[in-house]
Amino acid sequence: MATERIEVETRRHQMFPVLSAADIGRIRRFGTVRHYHRGACLFQAGEPGPGMFVVLQGTVSISQRDGLGHVVPIEHQGPGHFLAEIAQLSGRPALVDGHAEDDVETLLVPPDQLRALIIAEADLGERLVRAMILRRVALIESGASGPVLIGPPQSAAVLRLENFLGRNGYPYHVVDATQDADAAALLEQYGESELLVVCPDGSVMPNPTEHALARCLGMVDTVEHEDLFDVLVVGAGPAGLATAVYAASEGLRVIVVDCRSFGGQAGASARIENYLGFPTGISGGALAGRAYVQAQKFGVEMLIPAQVLSLDCSQAESQGQVSVQLVDGRKLRSKTLVIASGARYRRPEVPRLAEFEGRGIWYWASALEAKLCAQQEVALVGGGNSAGQAAVFLSQHAAKVNVLVRGPSLAATMSRYLIDRIEATPNISLRPHTELVHLHGEPAGGLNGATWRDRLSGGEEDCPARNIFLFIGAVPETDWLQGCGVALDKHGFVLTGQAARGGFPAKTAAPLESSVPGVFAVGDVRCGSVKRVGGAIGEGAAVVALIHQHLASAATAA
Description:
Elements lengths: L1 H14 L5 H8 L3 E5 L4 E3 L8 E6 L2 E6 L5 E7 L4 E2 L13 E4 L3 E6 L1 H10 L1 H21 L5 E3 L5 H12 L5 E3 L5 H9 L6 E3 L5 E3 L3 H8 L10 E7 L3 H12 L4 E4 L26 H14 L3 E3 L4 E5 L9 E5 L4 E9 L3 E3 L15 E2 L4 H6 L4 E5 L3 H11 L4 E5 L11 H8 L4 E4 L2 E9 L3 E9 L5 E4 L4 E3 L3 E3 L24 E2 L4 E2 L10 E3 L11 H25 L1
Parallel strand pairs: 9-10, 13-14, 13-18, 14-15, 18-31, 20-27, 21-22, 21-27, 22-23
Antiparallel strand pairs: 1-8, 2-7, 3-6, 3-8, 4-5, 4-7, 9-11, 11-12, 16-17, 17-18, 19-28, 24-25, 25-26, 29-30
Helix pairs in contact: 3-4, 8-9, 8-13, 11-12
C-alpha cells in the first residue's frame, strides 16, 4: 500500500508540476500576459483552446463538464501551475472548463508558440509534455468528460463509437438510460433511436457516424487547406506517423490524413513484445499515441478522421506537385506524397458474416471486446503475429480461446516467442487444419455460436462462442490510387524502387518511390514490406531522406 501511495503521489507531482520563477522566465518570451476578473472563463469544454496558460497570480478552478450538465471538480491551480493538456498543442477544443476564482494574471502561450517552446527548451518541454500526456490519460480514465453515449452499454452501436473514441485517445463516458433519469428522458424525447450522443457543447445526435461525431467534437477541422505542403502522408499507422515525425522534425511542412484513427492495425494490438527498446512490451495504442503526440509537437497537421477519395498526379512532373480529393470535397496539395494507407482487414467467405460484424464478429481485440468475453468460450481465426497477440490477451479474460488455423501449425507464420506463450497457456486450444464455415444467431440478438470444419477429415463441430475474432491478413488500401498511374502488383500492393518504372523514356524509381515521381510508399501497403511495426517505422524514417533528394532536385530543375 505504501508503494502504491508513492506511485500515485509521484504521478500526481508529474501531472501538476509547479514551475519555478526561472521556468516562468524562460516561458515569457513565448507568451503574453493576460488578466481575468473573478468568475471569468479562461477556456470551456467543446470550444477551441487558446493555448497554455501559466498562472502568475490568483487561482483557477478546473472542472469536467459533460453535455448533460454534470460537473466534476478536478483541481485548483495557483501561481506556478500551467493549464493545458495535449489538445492545446494543436488548438483543438478543450476537454475541461477553467474559471478564475479571483482576479487572475496569466501568461498565455498559443499553440504554435507552445510547440516552439517545447522544442527550444528541451528539459522544460519534457516536463510539460509529460504532464499533458498524463492529464489526457487521467481524463480518459475518469470517464467524466467528453461526449456522453446514451444507450445499452454492450450494444453494437455503443461499442462502435467506444472503439472509435478509444482508438483516437478521446475521453468519453457511457450512460445506461435504465439507470439515469436525465438520460432516459432525453432518449424518450428522441423516439426510436438506439443510441444518443451528447457532445460537450450540448448538441445531441441520434446514432451518429464516426465522422459526424468527430466534427461535433472538433476532432477534425473544416477549413480549406489551400497552401502547398512539402509532404502529404495518407495513413497514420506506424509508417505514416514515423514519416511525419522525421519529416517535420527536419523542418518540412507535413499534413497527415487518415480515415479512422492513428495507429492503424498496430494500434489495435494488445501488446507488442518484439519492438526494440521495450523489453516488457508495449500496447499498440500506447506506442501509436506517443508517436501521435510527438508528431504534433513538431507541428504536423492532422486530419483524422478524413477519407481520401482520389489522387491526382497530372501535375507531378510538370508542376512538381500532386493533390488528393477528400470525401468531404476539400482538396490538399503537396510537393510529395507518401502512401502509408496500409491494409484493411480481410473478410473470410463465411455466410452471414456481415450480419454479425460488431455483434460478435470482431477484427481486433481491445479491452472493450475483452470485457464481453469474460469467462466465455471464444474463437479466433488466424495464425500471424497479430492473431497470436490477440489470443494471449483474450486468454486473460475468456474461459477458453480456440485458435483456428488452416495450416498444420503456427511455425510458418508466427514469431517463436508467441508460439511458446500460446503453448504454455492452458486455456488456449490450437486447432490446425480448421476453417470457420457457419455462424448462428440473429443480428438483433447477436452471435450465439459457430461451426467449424476439419479440412482433413471433413468433420464439423459446433461451438457456443458468442464472440469470434478474425485475423486472417489484409487487403491493401489502394483503391484511391486508381487512374493516377501508380503501378501496383497483382495483389494491389504499391510497387517501388527497381520494380517501379514510370515516365517516357521509362526510368527506375528511387527506393521506396513509386512509378510516379514524388509519390512514395511505406509500410504494409508497399509490395515487399516485412509487415512488422519496426519495419514500417524504419521505412517511414528512410523515406524522408528520399523526399529531401526529390525536393532538392525539383528546386534545381526549377
